[in-house]
Write a structure and sequence with these properties.
By secondary structure, the protein is α+β, with helices and mostly antiparallel strands. The protein is built from ten helices and 16 strands. About 25% of the residues lie in helices and about 40% in strands. The strands form two sheets. It has a 14-stranded antiparallel beta barrel with strand order 1-2-3-4-5-6-7-8-9-10-11-14-15-16. InterPro entries: Beta-barrel_YaiO, TPR-like_helical_dom_sf. This is YaiO beta-barrel domain-containing protein.
Length: about 425
């Protein structure tokens, strides 16, 4: 497992202080406690160099202290963006921690400074495969026979390293980080206030997510209260895996309440390219008591470093044969892993996923795209230390045209909180 530092240390170590040589040998013999003690002391010396800091960070990573290793790697790379060994070790730290999306972002970022590096390309390929393959969760990235990475040169394949089984049991990863948690329960609650005429709208939901080797399944129960009425909707999301790089999204919702559509069906096919670009195409069908609405949707996403950019559009034919469109732009920054992020979303028009609003006793269906609107929302999600639970908050503002008075607008302000528990 101890392959987080390039073999360049074998040459540099001979020119270093004996204490560094000793720490280097101890680290690669699997005696990370002793190596850490020496390196931690050396790193505090005024003459300490980044070579010592990199080995110290790698030792922390091998001990399972991924967060501390990440902080140290970030410190090193903020000063030396062209340090190849630091980039390689930082990416491997995220792979060990199973933060595959973060590892992919780091590898992409490292390749901006270290052009066409074979090892970074190999790690990038591994991270990309890991994002789309449950095999990596079962075996660990360093044990997977990768078709992509096997075509590249592993510059460390002949190095003598300690395997994970040779580690002191007390230093192995905790069960939480070692085994993927396949179940999640999420509870959400939100409220929307209006600047005129309308009473507040409250919405709640509870969902259960089950991760299988074929993809995810998420049944959900939605509840909404508006205009003095209470409604319930049954919802089901499926994310089946189709092939390498391809997956789908399928949704079905049913309700007998006038606050929700009678039926709603949606689906998308996604393709992830190894360059970090993601495409999707699909459609939505929503059936209300008085009308049906069909729309075509597509999206373009792009992963760059720790950032994700997404542009989605909805195209809907209207009854007067005019085609109406709406869309939104999402920008998200991932923090330590895919479960920790912040983002901003801007949209124009109404997309089929938006909640409904009311005007007096009139229900403004969520698919009336001819009603002009602009919306802006912010989101922030963070997880607990043991990654068992996570929290997501969001706030937003909407400017929407009055359905009964074209050219006049009202504003609404919303806030929500989601709690997620993994097991």
């Amino acid at each position: 497992m101890f392959i987080g530092v390039s073999s360049v240390f074998g040459q540099d170590a001979e020119k270093s202080l004996p204490d560094f040589n000793t720490a280097y040998e101890l680290a690669y013999e699997g005696k990370t406690n002793s190596a850490y003690t020496i390196l931690n002391s050396l790193a505090k010396e005024p003459t300490a160099d980044n070579k010592t800091s990199i080995l110290l960070a790698s030792t922390l990573s091998w001990r399972g202290n991924f967060d501390k290793a990440r902080l140290l790697f970030n410190t090193i790379l903020s000063k030396e963006k062209d340090n190849r060994e630091a980039w390689i070790s930082a990416v491997k730290n995220e792979l060990y921690a199973k933060n595959y999306a973060t590892a992919l972002g780091l590898a992409n970022k490292g390749l901006l400074f270290i052009k066409e590096d074979k090892e970074l390309e190999r790690l990038k390929s591994l991270a990309f495969e890991a994002v789309n393959s449950i095999e990596f969760e079962d075996k660990g990235w360093y044990n997977v026979d990768s078709k992509v990475s096997s075509k590249l040169v592993d510059v460390e394949q002949n190095k003598k390293v300690a395997t994970e089984d040779e580690l002191d049991p007390s230093l192995r990863k905790t069960p939480v980080t070692e085994e993927k948690l396949k179940n999640r329960v999420a509870v959400n609650s939100s409220v929307t206030f209006f600047d005129q005429r309308f009473d507040p709208v409250t919405s709640n939901s509870i969902s259960y997510k089950r991760q299988t080797k074929y993809g995810s399944i998420i049944p959900r129960l939605n509840n909404s209260n508006r205009v003095g009425k209470n409604g319930i909707q049954l919802d089901l999301d499926l994310y089946p895996k189709i092939a390498k790089g391809f997956y789908a999204y399928i949704n079905y919702g049913f309700s007998e309440s006038e606050l929700y559509p009678d039926h709603k069906v949606g689906g998308d096919i996604y393709y992830n390219h190894k360059s970090g670009i993601e495409f999707s195409a699909g459609g939505r069908y929503i059936s209300f008591a008085t009308r049906d609405v069909k729309s075509i949707t597509n999206s373009l996403g792009y992963y760059r470093g720790n950032y994700y950019f997404s542009l989605r559009s909805f195209i809907t034919p209207s009854s007067n044969q005019l085609t109406k469109a709406s869309g939104n732009i999402l920008i998200r920054k991932y923090l330590k892993d895919a479960e920790n992020y912040m983002g901003v979303n801007f949209g124009v028009g109404f997309s089929p996923e938006l909640r409904q609003f009311t005007s007096g006793d009139q229900l403004l269906a969520e698919t009336l795209l001819y009603i002009e609107s602009q919306r802006l929302s912010f989101e922030y999600q963070f997880s607990s230390k043991n990654d068992i639970s996570s929290y997501r908050t969001n706030i937003g503002v909407l400017r929407q045209e009055q359905s009964f008075d074209p050219g006049t607008f009202f504003y609404s302000f919303s806030a929500g909180l989601t709690y997620q528990f993994n097991f």
